[in-house]
């Protein structure tokens, strides 16, 4: 699967547009990670526990979007965008969306 944030893929020609595809996940913070994060805010620096959680969430959402594109018969996704939002206290949604397309070598 070819993935790009661009509308085009150099060296490829889009032969069919299958439509919008998306993937998402909603994650709740973990009390143990919150305790570590509180300590980290006291000394400064990256909150690695949350960085790892958000990276895992992005990968899960991306995998779901890819599965949706494969179900449509696409072999690439263009115009990929990520969005995040708070669903309720202590939870975040990661959403990724793009356009499922069929491409061939130019």
Poorly predicted parts: none
- Tell me the number of helical segments per DSSP (H or I, 4 or more residues long): 2
Secondary-structure element order, N to C: EEHHEE
Give the beta-strand count: 4
Subunit organisation of the chains: single chain
Indicate how many domains the architecture comprises: 1
Identify the strand order in the major beta sheet.
1-3-4-2
If you compute it from the alpha carbons, what radius of gyration comes out, rounded to the nearest whole angstrom? 17 Å
Mean pLDDT value: 89
Taking the sheet with the most strands, its summary is: 4 strands, mixed
Structural class of the helices, strands and pairings? alpha+beta
Backbone shape: elongated
Content of β-strand: 35-45%
CATH class: Alpha Beta
CATH superfamily: Hypothetical protein apc22750. Chain B
**Helix proportion:** 25-40%
N→C terminal distance: 17 Å
CATH architecture level-2 label? 2-Layer Sandwich
* Named CATH topology: Translation Initiation Factor IF3
Structural features, described:
By secondary structure, the chain is α+β, with helices and mostly antiparallel strands. It has a single domain (2-105), classed as Translation Initiation Factor IF3, CATH 3.30.110. The protein is 35% helix and 42% strand. The protein contains two helices and four strands. The chain has helices at residues 31-43, 48-71, and strands at residues 2-3, 12-28, 76-86, 91-105. The protein has a four-stranded mixed β-sheet with strand order 1-3-4-2. Strand 3 (76-86) and strand 4 form a beta hairpin. The model has no long low-confidence stretch (mean pLDDT 89).
